[in-house]
Amino acid sequence: MSNSVISVVSRFLEEYTTSTTNKLKLVDAYLLYILLTGALQFLYCLLVGTFPFNSFLSGFISCVGAFILGVCLRIQINPQNKGDFLSVSPERAFADFLFAHTVLHLVVINFIG
Amino acid sequence: MYCSSFNFISASRSMARAGLLCLVVLVLAVGAQALTPTHHLTASDVARLEARLGQPFTDLQSAYFSIVGRSKLGVTVADSDAACQFLKSNLDPTNIESLFYAADASQALSGCEIPVSNETRDLLMAAVSEDSTVSQIYQSVSALSSLGLPLASQEVVGALSARITKEDNVLGIIYALHTAARLSQQAELGGILEEIEDLAARLDDLGGLFLQFEEGLETTALFVSAAYSLSDHMDMEPPLKEDQVIQLVNSIFSKKSWETLAEAFSVASAAAALCNNRFHVPVIVTAQGPATVSHSHPVLQLQVTDVLCQPLSADVVVESASSVASKNVVLSKAPFALRDGVYELNFMESRPASGYYQFAVAVTGDSRLIANHVELKVKVSTEVAITNMDLSVVDKDQSIGTKTTRVDHPSKSKGSFMADSHQNFAMSFQLVDVNSGVELIPHQVFVRLHNQKTGQEVVFVAEPDSKNVYKFELDTADRKSEFDSMSGTYALYLMVGDATLQNPILWNLADVVLKFMDEEAPSAIQSKTLYIPKPEIQHLFREPEKRPSTVVSNTFTALVLSPLLLLLILWFKLGANFANLSLSPSTVLFHIGHAAMLGLMYVYWTYLDMFQTLKYLAIIGSLTFLAGNRMLAQKAVKRLEGK
């Protein structure tokens, strides 16, 4: 059983390293960073408690939001999905990403207290 | 057709008559509840009024009030010559008001003549015209009539009627009424007489008890004296109902001390008018002393007077006297006998039981009397005696009275009684009326036990049974809590009291030794600690939430920032294409703008508020957008070229 899991994982990693473009790998690295930051914040909250709750929420939501926007960007600039996004060029996707982040940051900074 | 209409008319007439009869019955029923004065002057108030008016006068006006006021109260001036001299010396013959005061005051003094010159007469007669105010007309007409000078009544009436329509105030019309009372009866005074009714309509009814003008007491009193003086002059009954007159009496005589002489004078005038007029004389019926009769004082004494406390001679009859409790009529149509100005009735002859009685008294004899049906509450009091007082200690188990001792009032039982938890202490007695032997149920029949050592006392109520025998039982086990389980010798008292008893009783009957089981030491008397300051309450402010130690938060701050390092390493390893970074102005501007926006976020967190941030963001954002747009367009072109 564990054998099959390990083999699946290693196969996945192999496929990943070979068939994803550099650009996408950059975005994936960014996503990993966001994920780790969010997880560490959550861990802190579990250990120490939710005071001040608004700060925890804003930090955590910031990570979650950034992750989602990063995922959107990745989907949109992936050349394999080009068929789904005919009207959206990669530059346009990046511009949307930046604009959405501006709004997210505004809200997060407002809420962080 | 003619017959049928005739029948109809007669039928309607009989219906009208029936209706009228109903109305009359209704009015009589209502009239039976006629008002009686609640406020009136007592003899001391009248004396005070006389003294107020009798103070030495300083000027002509106060002399007028004093002399004329006292004459209305029936008091003659002490030194009339000096008064007359005062009037003559203070008179100003060119002033109408001054002439009025002097003339009317001299009329009240005997043998005082004010010399009058032709100029004076002309001045007074010239004042009677439509151009003078009503008070001026009043003063000149009064002066003319007091000085015995001729005056043209019809001319006065004409001037008054014209002035009344111009000046519609209450005081003016009152002066007009006074003036009309001085004119000859041949003049047409009917129009002015009607003003009384109009003025009466302007009175304010306060709670159904008082009737007065909003201008105040003085105006109301002057109105009463003016209305009656004119009505007497014209021999026509004033259009005031009995209840209205009584309400006026209440208003005028509710004030018992008068600030100004004018006020005192107006009250004296009103009182004199109400005592001496031809139509309405209010009757004041008061009991002399408390309205109480008993065997020692069997006679009920009533004073029947007019508003100035002068006794009236009339027939005073008790229409009915009924007991308040049982509503039995004890006396009916019994006359009072007049003795030394006081009306007396020996009520005890009817042998009433003790209690309260409602008397309906009627004063008749003079058709002018009003408020002559009076309701009085009379108390019949008596003395009580305690009979058959038996004290005993009863064993609970056997219910056999071990010892019954008879005690006679007011002596005390010689032996003391012992009662512990197995025994009950019992008491039975009867309360009788000394004079009639009837059993009484007074309001207060209490049994009091007083512990001499601790000062504790406990009071119980003794209740009568169906045969009117009072019984009291003390169960020591049951009543432990009331005594706080304190054993000891208690003095036993019986207290009997009632409003109708003349001899309330406090009788120390015996000593009772009570023994309680489980005697506890007396608990610290709560009362001592009840009134000392209580411990201070410290206010606990809301404690701030517990924060983790700085070490922990610093560690986690570092931890959270560490993935950034990881990201940079990864990007470097993946080979981020920094070489392709063109240094075109739009790119540079874009990056600077973007960095500025991120910097703005930090500044927003620390210093700014949302509105300022949005303002700056708009500026920086638009620049960044333009630059970014340019840069991305260039990139897109490059990408499409590269394809």
UniProtKB/TrEMBL annotation, chain A:
Whether Acyltransferase counts among this entry's keywords is no
Which residue ranges traverse the bilayer? 30-49, 55-73, 93-112
GO CC terms of this entry: oligosaccharyltransferase complex
Q: What topology does the record note for this protein and the membrane? A: Multi-pass membrane protein
Enumerate the Gene Ontology biological process terms. protein N-linked glycosylation
Q: Which UniProt keywords apply?
A: Endoplasmic reticulum, Membrane, Transmembrane, Transmembrane helix
* Metabolic or biological pathway, per its Swiss-Prot or TrEMBL entry: Protein modification; protein glycosylation
Checking Pfam families in the record gives: DAD (PF02109)
Give the residues annotated as coiled coil.
Answer: none
Q: Give a yes or no for keyword Endoplasmic reticulum in this entry.
A: yes
Quaternary structure, per UniProt, is: Component of the oligosaccharyltransferase (OST) complex.
Q: Spell out the family assignment given in the record's similarity comment.
A: Belongs to the DAD/OST2 family.
State its role: Subunit of the oligosaccharyl transferase (OST) complex that catalyzes the initial transfer of a defined glycan (Glc(3)Man(9)GlcNAc(2) in eukaryotes) from the lipid carrier dolichol-pyrophosphate to an asparagine residue within an Asn-X-Ser/Thr consensus motif in nascent polypeptide chains, the first step in protein N-glycosylation. N-glycosylation occurs cotranslationally and the complex associates with the Sec61 complex at the channel-forming translocon complex that mediates protein translocation across the endoplasmic reticulum (ER). All subunits are required for a maximal enzyme activity.
The protein's name is Dolichyl-diphosphooligosaccharide--protein glycosyltransferase subunit DAD1
Q: Which organism is it from?
A: Clupea harengus (Atlantic herring)
From TrEMBL, chain B:
A cellular component term (GO) from this record? oligosaccharyltransferase complex
The record lists the organism as Clupea harengus (Atlantic herring)
* Annotated function: Subunit of the oligosaccharyl transferase (OST) complex that catalyzes the initial transfer of a defined glycan (Glc(3)Man(9)GlcNAc(2) in eukaryotes) from the lipid carrier dolichol-pyrophosphate to an asparagine residue within an Asn-X-Ser/Thr consensus motif in nascent polypeptide chains, the first step in protein N-glycosylation. N-glycosylation occurs cotranslationally and the complex associates with the Sec61 complex at the channel-forming translocon complex that mediates protein translocation across the endoplasmic reticulum (ER). All subunits are required for a maximal enzyme activity.
Q: Which gene encodes it?
A: rpn2
Pfam families documented for this protein: Ribophorin_II, Ribophorin_II_2nd, Ribophorin_II_3rd, Ribophorin_II_C
Q: How does it sit in the membrane?
A: Multi-pass membrane protein
Subunit info? Component of the oligosaccharyltransferase (OST) complex. OST exists in two different complex forms which contain common core subunits RPN1, RPN2, OST48, OST4, DAD1 and TMEM258, either STT3A or STT3B as catalytic subunits, and form-specific accessory subunits. STT3A complex assembly occurs through the formation of 3 subcomplexes. Subcomplex 1 contains RPN1 and TMEM258, subcomplex 2 contains the STT3A-specific subunits STT3A, DC2/OSTC, and KCP2 as well as the core subunit OST4, and subcomplex 3 contains RPN2, DAD1, and OST48.
* Membership in a protein family: Belongs to the SWP1 family.
**Name of the protein described by the UniProt record:** Dolichyl-diphosphooligosaccharide--protein glycosyltransferase subunit 2
* Signal peptide start-end: 1-34
